[in-house]
Amino acid sequence: YVRGASGYLLVIDGTRAATLETARALQASVIDVVGPAPCVIALNKVDLIESWELEPRTLGDLAARAVRETSAKTGAGVEEAFGALVGAILAERATELATRYGR
Known about the structure:
The chain has helices at residues 18-34, 78-100; strands spanning 8-13, 39-44, 66-70. The chain is of the alpha/beta class and 103 residues long. The protein has a three-stranded parallel sheet with strand order 1-2-3, with helices on both faces. Strand 1 (8-13), helix 1 (18-34) and strand 2 (39-44) form a beta-alpha-beta unit.
C-alpha cells in the first residue's frame, strides 16, 4: 500500500511499548519499497500520558525523524503532524527540482 508514496506518517501508541517494534518493522518495509521518503512519527495518546509505557527518548533510531505527540481522541497535535509531513514532502520535492534544474 505504500508503493509510490511521497511520505508517510508512522503512528506509535505511547501506552503500548510493543508498538515501537512494530513501527520499526513497518519503517523498514516502507524504506525497502519506497526508499528514504519523508516520515513523521506520531507518538499517539498524549491524552493518556500518565499511562504511557514509552518515553520519546526510547524511540532510538526513529527519533531521528520528526516526532509529534498526538491524540486521535482529542485531535491534539494531529494537524501539526500532517503539516510537518507536508512540509517535509514539499522540501524534498524543492530540493529534487533544484538539483535537477541546477538552481
